[in-house]
């Protein structure tokens, strides 16, 4: 069985300044930027593989490149070095409400966002009740309301319900478990556990040790764009905490 | 071949394209009580203004073919499609940055989707054009020429041209913030540098040569060929085919090159 996520020598370079805007001509005509650079590597020399059904938690301080790595796995950012191969569809729990438009009704939004993630209208009809039930009675009552009139919690609940019904084999999670009220959070946790039990691969970013311990078996530790730890999640959390304490 | 993989990617996601186009049309028409009418009112008002100015004030009917109203209406409608595409595709990636950041779709889709949505609005405005045509045929001022078969060719060619232009503008705007302003000025100049309110035959010989470089000139020539029995300007049409495909290829290359930096920026 080949790994579902395979990152090899992954690297991505960012600009500190906005100087790049001047260098457009070079990028287009020479294929590279010749202007003096002030850049840094947000991630470099990252290699790892994730097998099917694994639950991986990504740990690291602010600015260590966690979200960037997640985005490259999701395919919404392109590495400058190396590459990442993802075998199978991805359900990205990143920027959950990205596909929703304030001025349309919640119902229209749900169908449109579902369409963006590749669900046909018939498939959406089938899943509609499941999604809205999961989002809760408050959301159900407001399905014909303009989406912008939803509270931010309700907006995220609907979006979470939609993405988690996508049924893709790989689930990427970026700190979204911290949404909603206590009751809804527990529902989210249950659903995540069901997805894991169903053999899905989970790749999550979190600062919450409780979440990491609960879902992840394996930990990856990023420090300033380098992969400095890969092992059982408990050890990785300890390593991270030790580093954080030492830095204090 | 550079165009094929992109085209294949878009076709594979045509369902998503369909969703996006529906959303665009939905958003556009949901907020307005007379929705669809705006699509035709705008160009009609423009056509009316040019008609009044150029027939009653400048008395310059002869710069176009007769009936001059039909001549202007065709030009203005087609130009409106092109100019709206250029304006909106230049903002395509920025305006939808949240979606671009959160969905892994072929990024060319964000450009194509605008050209298709605007294209559907253009198709919806065609009945106005046919209405004028039928009126002038009824009063005996013009006839339908068999060259009307060039009309669909013109639509396809304009579609490809707009996609090509959009593929260049969309990523460049992300990296170069002043681009929309430049596009706005270019379009305003483009309106007069395109035979919309005048025919190529009315331009001095030097300008006629320069107009060969404007792909919209040949496209408009094909739109009008079925309604005006003048001699067909073949060099202009050939030139617009060549420029359109060159633009499309250039657009694909530019988009590919700039994709990675653009994704970091939005």
SS element count, helices of chain B: 12
Task: State the domain count of chain A.
Answer: 2
Oligomeric grouping of the chains: heterodimer
| Number of helices, where a helix is a run of at least 4 consecutive DSSP H or I residues of chain A | 9
The helix/strand class of chain B is mainly alpha
Order of helix and strand elements from N to C terminus of chain A: EHEEHEEHHHHEHEHEEH
Give the beta-strand count of chain B.
Answer: 0
Write down the domain tally of chain B: 1
**For the residues shown, what is the average pLDDT of chain B?**
89
Main β-sheet description of chain B? none
Q: Structural class, from secondary structure content of chain A? A: alpha/beta
Distance between the termini of chain A: 43 Å
Helix amount of chain A, in percent?
A: 25-40%
Give the strand order of the largest sheet of chain A, numbering strands 1, 2, ... along the chain. 5-6-7-3-8-9
- As a percent range, the share of strand residues of chain A is 15-25%
Compute the separation of the termini of chain B in Å: 29 Å
In the CATH hierarchy, the third-tier topology of the largest domain in chain A is known as Rossmann fold
Which architecture name of the largest domain in chain A does CATH use? 3-Layer(aba) Sandwich
**Stretches with pLDDT under 50, minimum 5 residues of chain A:** none
- Overall shape of chain B: globular
A few lines on this structure:
The complex is a heterodimer of chains A (248) and B (266). Chain A is of the alpha/beta class and 248 residues long.
Describe this structure as you would to a colleague.
The complex is a heterodimer of chains A (248) and B (266). With 248 residues, chain A is of the alpha/beta class. Chain A has helices at 24-30, 66-74, 106-116, 121-135, 137-141, 152-164, 182-197, 209-215, 233-247; strands spanning 5-15, 39-50, 55-59, 81-86, 90-93, 170-174, 201-205, 218-223, 226-232. Chain A folds into two domains: 5-89 and 206-247, P-loop containing nucleotide triphosphate hydrolases (Rossmann fold, 3-Layer(aba) Sandwich); 97-167. In chain A, the strands form two sheets. Chain A has a six-stranded mixed sheet, sandwiched between helices. A three-stranded antiparallel sheet of chain A has the order 2-1-4. In chain A, helix 4 packs across helix 6 (152-164). Chain B has helices spanning 3-12, 14-30, 36-57, 68-89, 92-95, 97-102, 109-138, 150-175, 179-192, 205-211, 215-225, 234-265. Chain B is mainly α and 266 residues long. Chain B is built from twelve helices and no strands. Chain B has one domain (3-265). Chain A: It comes from Humibacillus xanthopallidus. Chain A: Residues 22-248 form the ABC transporter domain.
């Amino acid at each position: 069985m080949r790994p579902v996520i395979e990152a090899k020598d992954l690297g991505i370079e960012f600009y500190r300044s906005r100087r790049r805007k001047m260098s457009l001509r070079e990028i287009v005509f020479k294929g590279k930027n010749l202007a003096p650079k002030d850049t840094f590597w947000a991630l470099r020399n990252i290699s790892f593989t994730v097998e099917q059904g694994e639950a991986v938690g990504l740990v690291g301080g602010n600015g260590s490149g966690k979200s960037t790595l997640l985005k490259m796995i999701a395919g919404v950012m392109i590495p400058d070095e190396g590459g990442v191969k993802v075998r199978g569809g991805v359900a990205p729990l990143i920027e959950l409400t990205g596909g929703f438009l304030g001025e349309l009704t919640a119902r229209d939004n749900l169908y449109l966002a579902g369409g963006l993630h590749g669900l046909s209208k018939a498939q959406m009809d089938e899943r509609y009740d499941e999604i809205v039930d999961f989002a809760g009675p408050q959301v159900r009552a407001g399905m014909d309301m303009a989406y912008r009139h939803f509270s931010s919690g309700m907006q995220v609940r609907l979006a979470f319900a939609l993405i988690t019904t996508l049924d893709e084999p790989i689930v990427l999670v970026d700190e979204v478990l911290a949404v909603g009220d206590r009751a809804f959070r527990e529902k989210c946790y249950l659903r995540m556990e069901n997805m894991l039990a169903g053999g899905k691969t989970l790749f999550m970013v979190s600062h919450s040790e409780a979440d990491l311990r609960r879902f992840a078996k394996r930990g990856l530790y990023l420090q300033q764009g380098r992969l400095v730890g890969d092992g059982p999640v408990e050890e990785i959390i300890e390593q991270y905490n030790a580093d954080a304490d030492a830095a204090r | 071949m550079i165009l094929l993989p992109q085209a294949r990617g878009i076709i594979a996601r045509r369902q998503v394209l369909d969703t996006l186009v529906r959303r665009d049309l939905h958003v556009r028409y949901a907020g307005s009580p007379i929705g669809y009418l705006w699509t035709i009112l705008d160009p009609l008002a423009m056509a009316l203004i040019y008609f009044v100015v150029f027939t009653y004030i400048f008395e310059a009917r002869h710069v176009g073919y007769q009936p001059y109203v039909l001549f202007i209406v065709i030009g203005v409608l087609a130009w409106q499609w092109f100019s709206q595409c250029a304006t909106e595709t230049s903002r395509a990636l920025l305006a939808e940055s949240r979606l671009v950041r959160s969905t892994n779709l072929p990024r060319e889709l964000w450009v194509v989707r605008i050209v298709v949505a605007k294209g559907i609005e253009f198709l919806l405005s065609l009945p106005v054009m046919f209405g004028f045509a039928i009126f002038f045929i009824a009063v005996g001022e013009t006839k339908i020429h068999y060259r009307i078969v060039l009309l669909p060719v013109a639509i396809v060619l304009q579609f490809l041209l707009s996609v090509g232009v959009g593929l260049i503008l969309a990523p460049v705007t992300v990296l170069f913030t002043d681009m929309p302003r430049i596009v706005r000025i270019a379009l305003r100049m483009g309106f007069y540098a395109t035979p919309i309110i005048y025919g190529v035959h009315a331009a001095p010989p030097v300008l006629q040569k320069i107009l060969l470089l404007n792909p919209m000139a040949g496209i408009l020539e094909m739109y009008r060929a079925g309604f005006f029995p003048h001699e067909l300007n073949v060099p202009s049409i050939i030139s617009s085919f060549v420029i359109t495909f060159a633009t499309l290829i250039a657009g694909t290359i530019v988009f590919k090159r700039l994709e990675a930096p653009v994704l970091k920026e939005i």
